[in-house]
Structure formats: structure tokens, C-alpha cells
Design a protein that fits this description.
The protein is α/β, with parallel strands linked by helices and about 250 residues long. It has a single domain, classed as Rossmann fold. The protein has helices at about 40-45, 60-70, 85-90, 115-120, 125-130, 145-165, 180-190; strands spanning about 30-35, 75-80, 100, 170-175, 205-210, 215-225. A six-stranded mixed β-sheet has the order 3-2-4-1-5-6, with helices on both faces. Strand 2, helix 3 and strand 3 form a beta-alpha-beta unit. The radius of gyration is 18 Å and the shape is globular. The protein starts with about 30 loop residues before the first strand and ends in a 31-residue tail after the last strand.
């Protein structure tokens, strides 16, 4: 499978233009970032990480069914997922065979994996994770900066590929994990990784980003409401693609 990367000049790696612009201004490829539903580890207060066998609990399964009903009207061009079971279970009512991308997997917490959160609060590294996450490297695990780099690269690469394959009005979905999605949102908002703890991403919530050649537009964060009608692709292209923001604010119309 050929991979496409967005260059800084707004073109794909093969030299063709991306031409994506914010949906509320005109046609644009848009990604829905979905956090998995509530898991057994969430309830137990345990840092699951990449532990095997972590499943959705009963409430998380209900969240997944509700999500599928909520997103059913949307024409998803592509569904991509973390390889972990809780993400695949969340997508099961919505998509039969999502494409797995290892770069969207949970953080490798190393020795912290499987530990109770109340005990980790006493670890010196906990303050670093909270106040200076860009410097955090989990014991025998992954650096937060590396998590951000791999996740952002995956989303931007997939967005370019979806745009080229399905057109600039395409809508696609990526299912991942809380801190991974927060890192992607921080990048899209132009925030330093040290500010990503200010972002909240609840289980089975969606966040929505439209990438353009000049800047991303963040349309939703931590949304669990019922109305997703504003994400419907427009029926036709209305104007020449642009990366410009609407001065005074968007009208909210497609």
C-alpha cells in the first residue's frame, strides 16, 4: 500500500495538491477522532496501557452501540483503529473491518502498565507527566514526545491519503486512546505538548479536525451529543478551496 505524506507546502508526497479546506467554508476531508468506550480498567482505576484482554465493560458496550446509531447517517470513507481490543470492540457495531494502524495504539507505559493509578500518584514521574509531559519518558516505556510524533504523523498521513482517494469532501474516522487523541488535538490547536493535559477526552467521545494546507481547524472536542448533522459532506463544491478562517466566526453552515 502506497503511503502519502503532506508536505509543508500543502502538496502530497507525489507532488499533487491536497486542496483540503475547512468544511464550514467549503469541501474538506475531515477526521473524526473517537476514543474507545469505557473499559474494565477505567472502572478499576488501573493504567491499562497495552495490557492484553482489556475489554469494554457493560456500560462501554452500550456506549459503542449508541455511537454506531449516532454516526450511522455519516458516509465514512475509511475507518482506522488502534490494534487494541477495546478500540476494536468500540467499532464493532459501526464498522465490520477497520484498518489497523499500530501508530494509533495506546502509550507504552512500561513498568507503569497494569498499576493502580492511586499508587502511581506517588511516583516522582507523575508530576512530570502532569506538568511537563514533553519531557516524560515512562520507565522502560515510551516517551510522550514520541507518542505525539507517531500519532500526529499517522493522522496527517491518513488524511492526505483519504483526500486523494475519496476526494476533499471525504469524512473518515480514527479510533484511539485518550492521551493519544489529546496529543493529536494539541498539535491541531497549535499547543505545546506541555499544555495537552488541559484537554479532556472522555470515553466514546468524538473530536473532529479538518486539515488544510495552512492550518488545521478543530471543529469538535470531547463531544458526546446526538447531533452530527453538521459533519455531513456538502452536496457540491461551493467555492475555490481556501485555508482562510472566517473573520468574526463561522456561520455554522455547510
Amino acid at each position: 500500500m502506497m503511503r502519502y505524506l503532506c508536505r509543508s507546502d500543502g502538496y502530497l508526497s507525489d507532488g499533487s495538491p491536497v486542496g483540503a479546506v475547512v468544511r464550514r467554508l467549503t469541501d474538506v476531508a475531515t477526521v473524526i477522532l473517537l476514543r474507545h468506550g469505557r473499559s474494565t480498567s477505567n472502572v478499576a482505576g488501573v493504567l491499562a496501557g497495552r495490557s492484553d484482554g482489556v475489554e469494554l465493560d457493560e456500560y462501554g458496550q452500550a456506549q459503542a452501540r449508541t455511537l454506531a446509531e449516532r454516526l450511522a447517517p455519516l458516509p465514512l470513507a475509511t475507518v482506522v483503529s488502534s490494534p487494541l481490543l477495546r478500540c476494536l470492540q468500540t467499532l464493532a457495531p459501526l464498522a465490520d473491518s477497520p484498518t489497523v494502524d499500530e501508530r494509533l495504539t495506546e502509550i507504552d507505559y512500561g513498568r507503569w502498565t497494569g498499576q493502580e493509578l492511586r499508587k502511581l500518584l506517588k511516583e516522582p514521574m507523575w508530576k512530570v507527566v502532569q506538568q511537563h509531559p514533553s519531557a516524560a519518558v515512562f520507565p522502560e516505556g515510551e516517551a510522550m514526545a514520541d507518542v505525539s510524533a507517531r500519532a500526529v504523523a499517522a493522522i496527517r498521513e491518513w488524511d492526505c491519503k483519504v483526500t486523494e482517494t475519496h476526494g476533499p469532501a471525504a469524512l473518515w474516522l480514527a479510533c484511539s486512546h485518550g492521551d493519544v487523541i489529546k496529543a493529536i488535538l494539541a498539535d491541531a490547536l497549535g499547543l505545546h505538548l506541555d499544555s495537552f493535559q488541559r484537554i479532556v477526552v472522555d470515553p466514546c467521545s468524538i473530536s473532529v479536525i479538518s486539515y488544510t494546507p495552512l492550518r488545521p481547524f478543530v471543529i469538535k472536542i470531547n463531544d458526546s451529543g446526538a447531533d452530527v448533522g453538521s459533519l455531513q459532506p456538502p452536496k457540491r463544491r461551493r467555492r475555490k478551496p481556501s485555508s482562510a478562517a472566517v473573520v468574526g466566526g463561522s456561520t455554522g453552515e455547510n
